């Protein structure tokens, strides 16, 4: 999982959803788990 300062480019990928978990912003992509990342 990548830790990034901005998730804007990752949330535009097909199949990605933005989720808030424990105060962190997480991008989860089920079609391509390579784009899984968190912010914060």
Give an overview in words:
By secondary structure, this protein is mainly β. It contains 1 helix and 4 strands; from the N terminus they run E-H-E-E-E. The protein has one domain (2-39). 10% of the residues lie in helices and 42% in strands. Strands 1-4-3-2 form a 4-stranded mixed β-sheet, with no helix packed on it. A hairpin with a 2-residue loop joins strand 2 and strand 3. The longest helix has 4 residues, at 8-11. The model has no long low-confidence stretch (mean pLDDT 95).
Shape, principal axes of CA atoms:
globular
Order of helices and strands: EHEEE
- Percentage beta strand: 35-45%
What share of the residues lie within helices? 10-25%
Query: Total strand count, please?
Result: 4
Count of DSSP helices?
Answer: 1
Structural class by SSE content: mainly beta
Kindly state the mean pLDDT as a whole number?
95
Biggest sheet character: 4 strands, mixed
């Amino acid at each position: 999982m990548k830790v990034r300062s901005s998730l804007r480019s990752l949330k535009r990928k097909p199949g990605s959803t933005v989720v808030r978990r424990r105060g962190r912003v997480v991008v989860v992509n089920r079609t391509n788990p390579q784009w899984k990342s968190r912010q914060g």
